[in-house]
Each structure stands twice: as structure tokens, then as C-alpha cells.
Amino acid sequence: MTVSDHLVNGAERSAVGFSVSGLDADATATVTFTDGASHTVVASSSATSADLSGLADGPITVTVSDRKSTRLNSSHRT
Known about the structure:
By secondary structure, the chain is mainly beta. It has no helices and 7 strands. It has strands at about 1-5, 15-20, 30-35, 40-45, 50, 60-65, 70-75. The strands form 2 sheets. A 4-stranded antiparallel beta sheet has the order 4-3-6-7, with no helix packed on it. Strands 1-2-5 form a 3-stranded antiparallel beta sheet, with no helix packed on it.
């Protein structure tokens, strides 16, 4: 999981770029962005950006889950 900008400002919140790598060629995954108030935004691993404007300022946790429940967690600030 790569987020193109680890410090997202207000102008960027509606289209935060990300990419998921390391999945099998036929695999898909769900990318979940969660703020400190437990608000979430869910995107497909095939997407290239996510609208995080509904999330609170502060640390954002990103979880990538595939059908096999393989997980990768990282934190980013908006």
C-alpha cells in the first residue's frame, strides 16, 4: 500500500492518491481508511484515489484486506 502524499491538506482531501501492490494477479482487495472517530471510507484496490473529505483531521489508519484476510496496516496524517 502506497499513499502518494503522507500529509494531505484540505484541497487534496477529495482525491487522495494511493496504490496497492503485492497482490496475486487475480486477487482484489478492499482498502479501508479510518479516522480517530471511527469514520471510514472504503475503496477497491483497483481504485487510484479515495475521497477522504468525510474523515476527521488527524491520523488515518489504512487497512488492506484481501479475500484471504491478509492485512497490511499503516498510519498517515491528513
